Amino acid sequence: MEALRDRFAGTRLSGDPLDVAMPPGLERWPHAMREQLDVPLKPAGVLVPIMQRRGGPTILLTQRAAHLKVHAAQASFPGGRMEAQDESVLATALRETQEEVGIDPRHVDVIGYLRSMPTITGFAVTPVVGLVDDAAELVIDRTEVDYAFELPLDFLLDESNDRLVDREWQGERFRLTEFHYDGERVWGATAYMLLSFRKFVLNK
Question: The whole model's pTM is what?
């Protein structure tokens, strides 16, 4: 954990939550999909919760409820769009995490940030990286989240676990990187944020 803390020590929350970095592998996306990133974006914040488990650190993810209007039935970090009462996207990430999975902000040690990333659904998402202590208890809000699961950090950092999958979008075929672990599938924006997280941690 200290190595992670040291790696993220120099990161800072951007003063502009709409200052985004493009997803890795963007050149493989269909042109029409890339065009969807060039729209006015709404700020959002997610927590990358690193759970301190006996068997080694894990990253907590949620399976979003199927009835939601945006990113329904997808694996996701806890988080959401920035609301008027939020002082920053950090406040957004911590508030949404508590609402969705019950983790109180006092149990989260924020160690750093990744660059904001645009999504084709019109958000600029800032990943906030935090260490979650053992005292945190999960309380799932079933109106937003079906369940939570954990991805071992060692699994994520091993590039041999990447799965390249052929997808079709509006008649165009392209390849995306996904993570498949213990029956769970992580794809889309969340997979790209995990790739960015790994690239930063491994300093590549």
Answer: 0.91
